[in-house]
Amino acid sequence: MKTNRLGCLTGAGLATALITFLIVAGVALARGGVLFSPGGLNAQTGGATLGGVRSHAETAGRCAACHTAPWARVRMVDRCLDCHDDLLTNPRGFHSVMLAENRKNTCNTCHTEHNGPQAAMTALNLQTFPHDQVGFSLQAHQQNADGSAFACSDCHVDSMSSLDPLICADCHSGLDPGFMNAHLVAFQADCLACHDGLDSLSGGFDHSWTGFSLVGEHINADCAACHVDAGTLIDFGSAPQDCFACHAQNDAHAGRFGQDCGSCHNPESWEQADFDHNLTGFPLVGGHAGVACQDCHLENRFVDTPQDCFACHAQDDAHNGEFGPSCDGCHTPSSWQEADFDHSQTDFPLTGGHLQAACEGCHVEGVFAGTPQECAACHAEPQFHAGLFASACADCHTTDAWRLARFDQAHTFPIAHGESGWNDCQVCHPSALQDYTCYGCHEHEPGEIDRKHREEGISNFENCVRCHSTGQEEEGEGD
């Protein structure tokens, strides 16, 4: 009869395997793990004693001196730092930065072991080394100017953990000597204080990221003109953003307008100032709106500029100072010629026909003060008056109409006489006021008048009003 066999999975086989494992483990523990060592440890020494030894080889093959169990709470990097704790004394040092940036980094990322007593302890690969974590990307440093691949030693000549900034300057001076020399003069030689290898501060830098967009003339401004003596990113960020900080020496106002240049000027053109005069106590209206600033602000004087008209317009005063310096009593900024004088504020208010009279009709040759106010000064006595009324024009005439004179109070004969109503003086006084005639209206034939009056015994009938004082038909004694 045939029996099924399980080979190594039999009870005896499993027991044998367990015994073998225990023997191997015991030997490994007894010999400090040397059974699994991939090679000899480095025997090079710097002379100092760390962790009781001067080199890794002096650990005498004790793996646990560096290696930890997978289930242990500590890592191998912690064992390394137990001895090499001096590497972390500088928080900004290379090793501190590497561990702080990424806790996944371990010492054996760069430092190798078990390659023999004299093997190199540091093996770097530009393709795998996390160079970005030290603050400088190798993105723009893949090839030298001649096309050859970059090597660590191209920049780190003396030590992998240090860099002489002059290495950057020397290399880039060969690419563009003019630019590099000017750059070093303006911003010094600590290249890594600003540059990160990503070309963030090269020609593609967008200044709007800083909160101060470059517009107008600022676009072509030299960086060093605003960022004076800047050697670090902090220096660049601390550059003042107010106009006065850069343009104080160009202030034509000598500080009289303060330091808020942006209230008038803009980066498009410093000369094309846009000042809102309404913000002052003297808004520009009418003809003033088109006046050049320097016409009023002589010699760039802006503060305490006089605001009275006479200060600017004294030379244009056609009144020769007769009305004083208060030009705005008549004139406005809209038009100097269109004066609006309120004559009612004087002793001679304008009424009637005087309202339409031209100023120069009374004020001859621009003379205003002392202008006579009597009518005869302007209205010469007509020949018709023959000096009978002197200059008392206002007794009969008014400003409403010169021709409609009224003399009813002193007139002995009713002026409102006959069917025509109110009669003009010359109806009865055709030649002179001292003579009168009734024949202008009463078309009597002189011979008939003579016969009729003589029949009534009236011989003196030339003086009609002596008998007809009311203008009515009545009888009077004849002489």
Furnish the topology, listing elements before pairings.
Elements: H1 11-30, H2 76-83, H3 94-101, H4 152-155, H5 165-175, H6 177-187, H7 223-226, H8 233-237, H9 243-247, H10 293-296, H11 309-313, H12 359-362, H13 375-378, H14 425-428, H15 446-455, H16 464-467
Helix pairs in contact: 5-6
Using the CA coordinates, give the radius of gyration. Answer: 60 Å
Helix content: 10-25%
- Give the overall silhouette: rod-shaped
> How much beta, percentage-wise?
under 5%
Extended strand count: 0
Number of helices: 16
Structural classification: mainly alpha
Query: What is the residue-averaged pLDDT?
Result: 80
What are the segments in which pLDDT stays under 50 over at least 5 consecutive residues? Answer: 475-479
Tell me about the biggest sheet? Answer: none
Distance, first to last CA = 206 Å
Order of helices and strands: HHHHHHHHHHHHHHHH
Architecture overview:
This protein has helices at 11-30, 76-83, 94-101, 152-155, 165-175, 177-187, 223-226, 233-237, 243-247, 293-296, 309-313, 359-362, 375-378, 425-428, 446-455, 464-467. By secondary structure, it is mostly helical. It is rod-shaped, with a radius of gyration of 60 Å.
Summarize the structure in short.
The chain has 479 residues and is mostly helical. The protein contains 16 helices and no strands. It has a domain at 210-273.
